[in-house]
Amino acid sequence: MLSNGVNTCIFFGIYGNSLRYLESRGELKQHHLSCVFLAGCIGGAAQVTVTAPNDLVKTQLQVQTGRDTGSVRAIQYRGPVHCMRSIYRHEGFRGCYRGVVALMWRDIPSFGVYMVIYEAIAGGENKDSAVRVIIGGGVTGVVTWALVLPIDVVKSRIQADCTVNPRYRGLVDCIRQSYREEGSTVFVRGFWTLVTRAFYVNAVTFVAYSYTLRVLQGSRQ
Prior knowledge:
With 221 residues, the protein is mainly α.
């Protein structure tokens, strides 16, 4: 909960500033959606720096059984701070960014697509319409998450892997093993749960973002 606000601030802050910079350049002025896509990719890349360790901790806590099973995994985390400290102590700084390659493949292009879809649906003359913001945000979330679900599955498997005796050697190895053992359907597991959640979460996100931006811009005038 705490990191999500930080991630969102980083993304929208970098996205907004990048978009203004790109559109201020004469040669890019007539290519609005291209600027939106590139600014979204830049914002997605920036927020990965914070998302990666937070996402790793979240995933490790979620897959923890809560009891000692006698396996090599059996470090029982007491909370997010203890989890991060334990990972750092056993694996160092690099260990805190386990799964970052898959996360970059998920977030950098997807945030570009994310903002293009939203701009295409909710942009234009009536961009302040609450209905357009809600529908635009919801549809944007559904489409984007549907596209990135396969790489998200791989990312989660790498992050959930045992820290002491890891099963996967990296992104490609995880894809190979997952496909060999469970077939192609493993990469769309949880599809309906994910897209249902994506509609509501992203609708609320864009409503909050649009309203907050209007309030802050109004206070400066």
